[in-house]
Amino acid sequence: MEPQINIKENDIFEFSPELLTTLLKDHTLSSEDKQVNIFWATDSYANRGDGYQYGDQITIEAITGSKGNVIVPRAVKSREQQQQRSREMAEVFTPSWICNKQNNLVDNAWFGREGVFNTEVDNPDGSHSWIVNAEPVVFPEGKTWRDYVNENRLEITCGEAPYLVSRYDTVTGEPIPVERRIGMLDRKLRVVSENTSTTGEWLKAAQSAFMSTYGFEWQGDNLVLAREALLYTFLDYFRAKFGKEPQLKSLQYIAYIISWNIWQMDGLKGVIPNSCGERRTVVVDLFGETETITQCQGCKTGDIRAHNGTYALIKDWSASKSKQKIRFIDLIK
After folding, report:
1. CB contact at 8 A, 103 and 187
2. Which residues are CB-contacts of 190 (< 8 A; sequence separation ≥ 6)?
3. Which of 14, 53, 184, 199 is deepest in the core (most CB within 10 A)?
4. Are 1 and 232 in contact (CB under 8 A)?
5. Which residues, at least 6 apart from 101, have a Cβ–Cβ distance to it below 8 Å?
6. Reduced to 3 states, what is the DSSP secondary structure of residue 55?
7. What is the C-alpha separation between 99 and 105, in angstroms, rounded?
8. Measured at the alpha carbon of residue 24, what is the angle toward residues 61 and 164, in degrees to the nearest 5?
9. pLDDT category, 61, cuts 50, 70, 90?
């Protein structure tokens, strides 16, 4: 799989159908004997017919073969498509320099100093950039590089996940080389590369970095793009460190982590999008059948814990195996 901005689902499928299958999985709705995929959750593709309607699952057949260019990053979409998405779903993407500024604020607080990864540059002409601090990252007293790698990070309503990984500027489409990347996961992988020497050490630490990096998104196509971007980021950093390709089993495990940690959810309700609604109950007794219709109390009252929709599950990788699956809302105090 070659490095590229517009990641091709055909390339992933040709390399490994199982890899693409994993990237499409919805763990909340899937069971041990049946995989359920994330769904479109947008009408942007409805004119394509069956398989592309709002509630349809995103299948391999719908995004590969002659349909391999159905899903593309926002920067590749036409101006009209971008404006339509902004009107209908309030979709607005953040340029990399703003992501960098905000990620720096997080790191300034964690490290207790500024300029750990880069120095921001605000030019007189109104443009913005950053100068990379190329020296190995030095950690404050009482904190180690492993603490940083294992620190939980979350991008809400992540879109194509520009705060997590920065393979390209999501507004301009301009590619960003590995050594200049500014995402939260990018920074973790830089630290991993600076503090490991063997592939075994690197892979174990990189897996920890992915396990502690989360994001959720409503629209299924954006979620596919975000998951692909994280997978290719893993590839980019492995190649930059070792000058070769990782083994397929390593890619498959990273894809599995990504499929859990980057998930589909209505962020205001904590449920699978549009899963709330009327519930009809039929009771049969001696006098016949009685139908009762109840509304979603969570939607009615605004109580996030009272929805009748399907609450999104995520994985706590540090917990014991029997306690790893948890509802996202149970993390909210």
Report:
1. yes
2. 117, 137, 181, 237
3. 184
4. yes
5. 120
6. coil
7. 10
8. 135
9. very high
* Token duo for residue 272: 């699978």
Q: What contacts 111, CB < 8 A, 6 or more positions away?
A: 139, 140, 143
How is residue 324 written in tokens?
């790893």
Cα(66)–Cα(272) distance, rounded to whole angstroms?
30
Contact 133, 120 (CB under 8 A): no
Nearest to 330 by CA among 313, 317, 318: 313
Alpha-carbon distance 189 to 312, whole Å?
27
What single-letter amino acid sits at 125?
D
Structure tokens at 152: 């939980």
CA-closest candidate to residue 12, choices 81, 68, 70: 68
Q: Is 243 left (phi over 0), alpha (psi -120 to 50) or beta?
A: left
Burial code (b: 16+ CB inside 10 Å, e: under 16) for 118-149 equals beeeeeeeeeeebeeeeeebebeeeeebeebb
Shortest CA distance to 83 belongs to which of 68, 93, 95, 70? 93
Q: Give 83's pLDDT tier (boundaries 50, 70, 90).
A: low
φ/ψ region of 157 (left if φ > 0, alpha if ψ in -120 to 50, else beta) reads left
254 pLDDT tier (thresholds 50, 70, 90):
very high
The SS3 assignment for 325 reads strand
Q: For Cα atoms 154, 155, 160, give the angle at the middle one, nearest 5 degrees.
A: 140
Q: How far apart are CA 320 and CA 270, in angstroms?
A: 23
Q: What's the average model confidence in pLDDT over 91-109?
A: 91
Q: To which residue do tokens 């290719």 refer?
A: 232
What does the pLDDT average to over 230-241?
98
Q: Which residues pair with 117 in a beta bridge?
A: none
Provide the terminal-to-terminal Cα distance of the chain, rounded to the nearest Å.
Answer: 42
Provide the pLDDT confidence category of residue 284 given band limits of 50, 70 and 90: confident
Q: Kindly indicate the confidence band of residue 80, based on its pLDDT and cuts at 50, 70 and 90.
A: low
CA 187 centroid distance within chain: 16
What does the block give as tokens for 304? 């996030």
